Amino acid sequence: MVGRWSRWAVGVGVTVTVVVMGAGVARADVTVHVGRVSEDDSTARKVVVIDCLEGTTMLGGSAELFGAPSNVHVTGWMPIPALPGLKNPNSVVAYAEEGEGGEPANWRVGSNVLCGVAPTGLEMVHAHSATGSTATRTAIATCPRGTRLVSSGGSVHDGVGQVLLTTVEPSADLTSVTVAAHEDANGYAGSWSLSAYAMCADELPDLELVVADTEADSSASKSVTAFCPKGTDLHGAGVLTIGQAGHIHLTGVRIVDDWIGVGVDAREAAPGVDRTWSLRAYAICAAG
Q1: What's the rounded Cα separation, in Å, for the pair 54 and 197?
Q2: Separate counts of helices (H) and strands (E) for the chain
Q3: Which pTM does this prediction carry?
């Protein structure tokens, strides 16, 4: 597939890259859902890469923990376009890290990737924040004019387990994705940064953003699922933790079996907080 890179600066210390992936069809067609998990051990940081099958194109992905004790959290997932010259092209990379102090128990990080026929105008926009030590940071990837969001992703860089991903939020009109993170309750003196990833294309048939929320209370853990309407398939996933920034560990952004929705999971960092928070799941759906 032929593609090109273009790069320019937006604002102070923010870089945006657009990857144009070439011609496709008038609609996206998810044909396969592939999963993979990392080794089961107590390594402080884990990465798992999952490729789409030959003849299909990566349309979206996710990240989740398995067997994870309380001091581990997802730090992001990154879609990689199907372009020559890139490391791990046509794949999704998922990241997770142990929090400050480490975690002696074994755990795994897993990823799921949605693969299929590329829609017309498919391209990826990558926005990278400034680098430094600040309590919170945000990056926004905006689709080029005339295109809409197909799927999204986000990742924390160099947070060494002390920066918590809080937000991978598609906009209501599906033209951008906002990614945010917050240093943990003890703060972090090192420099870190953040990336937002937007997979964009010409508007898909029956394109819709579905949102589902938990109750707002002080429960130690929460889960919620956003289901796609009948007749549509999941293409992209998002998550938002609301309240108690720096105290909530994101533990899963899951593609539900047969790509019918998105499940998200989070829990309070030990020793917990007796304050209100909630969790939101986003599902980007379209006719298959």
Answers
A1: 23
A2: 0, 21
A3: 0.90
